[in-house]
Amino acid sequence: MSDYVIEIPKFKYNQQALLEYQTHITAWKPNVHYAKIGVNTNNGSNWFDFYPDDTDDIIKDITRSLNINLDPKPYKFTKHLAGGVLPWHIDPHRECVFMIPLTENNEGLQWVDENNSIIAQHVYTCPTVINAKIRHGCPRITKDRIFLQVNIPCLWNELKVNYATIFSQE
């Protein structure tokens, strides 16, 4: 089992509804967590977030498909625009992040060591959980990338053992 990624290809969700939902988002904001530590997410990296209301039906459907108690406000849409970057980073408040890709043919994600040497990489082809406590990013974005992210409140080693019961894969 990987220390970086767990694919969940049989996860059931309404992909078309999520795609439609995100096309109506007009309140994208620069990523505030990284702006606080000096990463400019507005100019240069072109990195934007939107926190949906978890009472929306499409979001409640995702919640019903997860067999774990979620933290408050676990959902976030992220948009990285072509020409930007996803800077190398470690997520400050989460370890296991469930990524549902809403765009295809993206450059994926890379994990790097302390010398910025690539130690792992992944291209999203299905819903996937990433280990966000290992330094990761995407140094070159050539086309827009949009995801729905869900914070899974557990440690990576716990997730590796329990992912099949957490994610509905019928």
Walk me through the structure.
This protein is α+β, with helices and mostly antiparallel strands and 170 residues long. The protein has one domain (5-166): Jelly Rolls (Sandwich), CATH 2.60.120. The chain contains four helices and eleven strands; from the N terminus they run βαβαβαββββββββα. The strands form two sheets. The protein has a seven-stranded antiparallel sheet, with helices on one face. It has a four-stranded antiparallel sheet with strand order 5-10-7-8, with no helix packed on it. A hairpin with a 5-residue loop joins strand 7 (109-112) and strand 8 (118-122). The longest helix is centred in the C-terminal third of the chain and has 11 residues, at 156-166. The protein is globular, with a radius of gyration of 15 Å. The model has no long low-confidence stretch (mean pLDDT 89).
Task: Write a concise keyword list for the protein shown above.
seven-stranded antiparallel beta sheet; alpha+beta; 170 residues; 19% helix; Jelly Rolls; four-stranded antiparallel beta sheet
What is the overall number of helices?
4
Summing up helix and strand content along with how strands pair, one would put the structural category as: alpha+beta
Strand order of the largest sheet: 1-9-6-11-4-3-2
Rg calc: 15 Å
- Average pLDDT value? 89
Question: Uncertain regions: pLDDT < 50 for 5+ in a row?
Answer: none
What is the number of independent domains? 1
Question: Can you tell me the CATH architecture?
Answer: Sandwich
The strand count comes to 11
Order of helices and strands: EHEHEHEEEEEEEEH
Strand content range: 25-35%
CATH fold-level assignment: Jelly Rolls
Q: Which descriptor suits the 3D outline?
A: globular
**CATH class category:** Mainly Beta
